[in-house]
């Protein structure tokens, strides 16, 4: 009897867990096609919220700001992470744990600290301060990922390259960096998603004239809510799903090639 109960309870628990996880997303997607402005009342199928979204200059400007901030933050975070790990591995190996600080410290504390820092030096808030904040946030993810991969590399490859006459820069670009590419790609993707999705640092460090996508969604919801937010969220869900599917396809091809 106990075995039957266990075999029944586990699938039930897993089913309820996935329902709890995905039902709100399904409801959001369905109501992005709702003709009613009320989020709890269905009045028929329509695509007018998507038309309004694509016609909204504010939404496109917010998307443009988010993409600029995310792209620059990824480049700065990953570049700094690779340089710190490669050049300071021997001297800073014991101190890499401090890069986990941004993961441990609540983001609200980090955002308030950055705002105080910018205010102390009278730095005008805008895209530059937002990029700086997201770069700092991204370092907490990029450095540990790149560092863990660098620790796995075999030292004799570097020694062999140097013994054969390669310079330190040639060794880095032709031996070390290609081996670090999987971790660099993973860190870039993670930092990009975190930066694109971040609200707290954007709220404190963006200023009054700069608006990112999360801030735009917050302003629309705060002013009363609009099904256009559902349409925007649906597009973001499908774009994220396409990215994940693309990565999974690349990994599957690698596995097939190895086999």
Describe the structure.
The protein has a single domain, classed as MetI-like fold, CATH 1.10.3720.10. It contains 12 helices and no strands. The longest helix has 32 residues, at 227-258. It has helices spanning 2-31, 48-55, 57-87, 89-92, 101-104, 107-120, 127-152, 155-163, 168-197, 200-205, 213-222, 227-258. Helix 1 (2-31) packs across helix 12 and helix 3 (57-87) packs across helix 11. The protein starts with a helix and ends with a helix.
Task: Reconstruct the topology from this structure.
Blueprint: H1 2-31, H2 48-55, H3 57-87, H4 89-92, H5 101-104, H6 107-120, H7 127-152, H8 155-163, H9 168-197, H10 200-205, H11 213-222, H12 227-258
Keywords, separated by commas or semicolons:
259 residues; mainly alpha; MetI-like fold; 0% strand; globular
What is the overall pLDDT average? 83
Radius of gyration computed on alpha carbons:
23 Å
Number of strands: 0
How would you name the oligomeric state of the polypeptide chains in this document? Answer: single chain
Q: What's the number of domains?
A: 1
Main pleated-sheet profile: none
CATH superfamily: MetI-like
Query: Can you write the helix and strand succession as a string?
Result: HHHHHHHHHHHH
Distance between the termini: 43 Å
Question: What's the CATH architecture name?
Answer: Orthogonal Bundle
Percent helix: over 70%
Low-confidence stretches: none
Strand percent estimate = under 5%
Q: Specify the CATH class.
A: Mainly Alpha
Structural class: mainly alpha
Structural shape? globular
CATH topology: MetI-like fold
């Amino acid at each position: 009897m106990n075995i039957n109960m266990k075999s029944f309870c586990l699938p039930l628990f897993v089913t309820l867990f996935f329902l709890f996880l995905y039902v709100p997303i399904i409801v959001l997607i369905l109501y992005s096609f709702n003709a009613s402005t009320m989020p709890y009342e269905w009045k028929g199928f329509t695509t007018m919220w998507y038309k309004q979204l694509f016609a909204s200059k504010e939404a496109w400007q917010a998307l443009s700001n988010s993409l600029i901030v995310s792209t620059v933050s990824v480049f700065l975070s990953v570049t700094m992470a690779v340089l710190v790990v490669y050049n300071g591995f021997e001297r800073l190996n014991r101190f890499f744990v401090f890069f986990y600080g941004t993961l441990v410290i609540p983001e609200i504390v980090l955002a308030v600290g950055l705002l105080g820092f910018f205010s102390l030096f009278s730095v005008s808030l805008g895209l530059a301060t937002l990029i700086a904040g997201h770069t700092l946030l991204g370092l907490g993810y990029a450095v540990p990922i790149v560092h863990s991969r660098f620790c796995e590399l075999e030292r004799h490859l570097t020694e062999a390259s140097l013994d054969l006459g390669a310079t330190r820069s040639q060794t880095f670009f032709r031996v070390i960096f290609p081996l670090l590419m999987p971790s660099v790609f993973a860190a870039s993707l993670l930092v990009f998603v975190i930066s694109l999705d971040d609200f707290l640092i954007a709220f404190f460090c963006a200023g009054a004239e700069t608006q990112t996508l999360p801030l735009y969604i917050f302003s629309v919801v705060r002013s009363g809510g609009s099904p256009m937010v559902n349409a925007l969220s649906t597009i973001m869900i499908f774009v994220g799903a396409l990215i994940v599917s693309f990565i999974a396809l690349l990994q599957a091809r690698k596995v097939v090639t190895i086999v």
